[in-house]
Amino acid sequence: MATRMAPTISPDTEFFWNGLRDNKLLIQRCGGCGALRHPPRPMCPHCRSLDWEAIESTGRGTVYSFVMPHQPRVPFFDYPYVVALVELEEGIRLVSNLTDIDPADVTVGMAVEIYYQSFDNELVLHQFRPSA
Predict the structure, then answer these.
(1) Are strands 60-67 and 82-88 parallel, antiparallel or unpaired?
(2) Residue ranges of the ChsH2 rubredoxin-like zinc ribbon domain (predicted)?
């Protein structure tokens, strides 16, 4: 498998990527209204506050939706693979890979849990697998 491309890290997303390196899934919580948000951004879309803090997610959730890309083939993925939109227990959704399951067995609503995968270029990504 080829090395994964590193994400673009900005001042607004740096906390998220640093959290993954520490095996923590961090979510922004607005300091004004308490709303959770992902992806990270500087301003709350609900109250427009610029005040926020990072909270740690449990890393548990359910598959909200999923796809199995076939084309174009990207060199750093083993095919077939599953891209899932995971709804976390905290109520936000994020996109990730779903592993350790036959793609034919993936269902909407199935329980999943996070794990962290390290790559050669010091990149750490969140991945999900079926809950034990």
Answers:
(1) antiparallel
(2) 17-53
User: Residue 1: its pLDDT value, please?
Assistant: 44
pLDDT tens-digit profile of 58-80?
Answer: 999 999 999 998 888 877 777 88
List of long-range contacts for 31-38, beta carbons under 8 Å, 24+ apart: 36/90, 36/91, 36/92, 37/92, 38/92, 38/93, 38/94
Rg (CA), the chain: 15
Residues whose CB is less than 8 angstroms from the CB of residue 40 and which lie 6 or more positions away in sequence, other chains included: 12, 13, 15, 16, 28
* Cβ 63 vs Cβ 118: under 8 Å: no
The span from the CA of 86 to the CA of 12, in Å, is 22
**H or E segment to which residue 16 belongs:** helix 14-21
